[in-house]
User: Fold this.
Amino acid sequence: MAVGLDFNGTAQQVNNFVSVSIQFDKPGACKARGSDLRVHFKFIKMKLDTSGLESTAPFFGSSNELLDGFSAAPFFEVPNTTNFDGFQKEAIQMVKPAKGTTTLAFIFKEGVMVAADSRASMGGYISSQSVKKIIEINPYMLGTMAGGAADCQFWHRNLGIKCRLHELANKRRISVTGASKLLANILYSYRGMGLSVGTMIAGWDETGPGLYYVDSEGGRLKGTRFSVGSGSPYAYGVLDNGYRYDMSIEEAAELARRSIYHATFRDGASGGVASVYYVGPDGWKKLSGDDVGELHYKYYPVTPSTVEQEMVEVAGA
Amino acid sequence: MTKQQANWSPYDNNGGSCVAVAGADYCVVAADTRMSTGYSILTRDYSKICKLADKCVMASSGFQADVKALQKLLAARHLIYQQQHNKQMSCPAMGQLLSNTLYYKRFFPYYSFNVLGGLDSEGKGCVFTYDAVGSYERVGYSSQGSGSTLIMPFLDNQLKSPSPLLLPALDAVTPLSESEAVDLVKTVFASATERDIYTGDKLEIVVINAEGIRREYIELRKD
Assistant:
């Protein structure tokens, strides 16, 4: 609550600090019992260091008629670029973490655990808090979405179609290796055209659990633990710390949920609902979907703090 | 050698806002009727809403030339579907068709921000919301266009329902009745008109329910 008040202020300079003491004039403005409120500010007086502006380079040539009588001008190095006003912004943009999301997947003893948040952002605007980032390609394979939502949705659906056609043509299910290769080859052919896809293909086939990371640069990696998106550093921290190969399904699900929660806590581009899926020999099953706001209070419940002084309504005025 | 910059853009933004709200057995789709370019108004009486199928209506804001092309394409595809399947397209099917149509122009997009509203095959209200390249999602309510950043927080406040991603699932249907939803939409546009220069003139409201489709027009501020 903002209160506009008159104040008597005194300022003194003591050494390099300026001390300001403010007293509130109206006794009823603050409802603490009896006393007035005193506030102190300290300002540090700035002493500017101008040594950097003095030129250190010696003059070329012993004497120069034009420069006699002129003092040395400060010399700044100018970057050799065509876009002088915007190159720094471009550099920041280049390093900026793209793909505002957090998704993760890992293989453990019982199968594959896949988890993701559900926030979609357009710049700084949250366009949706309920995006399905875990895409069900077929009953035993899942794909995660990071990057362009339309790109991921469209190409995962396309992959599902290709997998189904493979089943019909070959009378058996496609392997996770095969499915991820199909997707990677498509994305590689569109390389450089601006698609943004950072996905993980997780599934269970004849060789057991499988997990591949595929992206729009054309990369395809086989692995046991991945996290993709702007929140992935935070998720990796929790995931790598708590990971053991021989976990039970409940432990693995809780680890996945916690990792997503911590990522949504620290990353502005991640949030919404943390979904956790498990892929086992019988296919995938959704284990949980929890609002991360509620998860916060579940993990860190509010403890009522002991009250030292209670503020009481003053009768009348 | 600096990259050559284009001195002409194929796109223009004609402004405007669209809203759709889904209920238990109805769907409300609304859009203003102002068409602008830059700071000028081209017309005060342009409909952004198009009936694609019996129980399926689309409202689009953005570049109206692209919207017109999109509407024509979808209408043609619907006609072919009717010839081949001897029935009308359901709203979810039209939703998928629109998504694919938008994505096919991924590298030269339709500058069109759409909301699709209608009844699904069970008669429940459904709303689909899209981005310019086809990513879509079924939701309980949505707004698109120049006023969407003003409208959406208000709709979140009034209509926010539990996310469909929650497990165990919670029912996500808007608890409002049809007349309450229509009043809400009128209020929303009155507010958006106050603060968005591209929204105003007239409001066109389309209500889809089991009886059919009905249309209403409300005057908005013309400044």
Notes: Chain A touches chain B through 31 residues (CB under 8 Å). Confidence is low (pLDDT under 50) at residues 1-25, 27-37 of chain A.
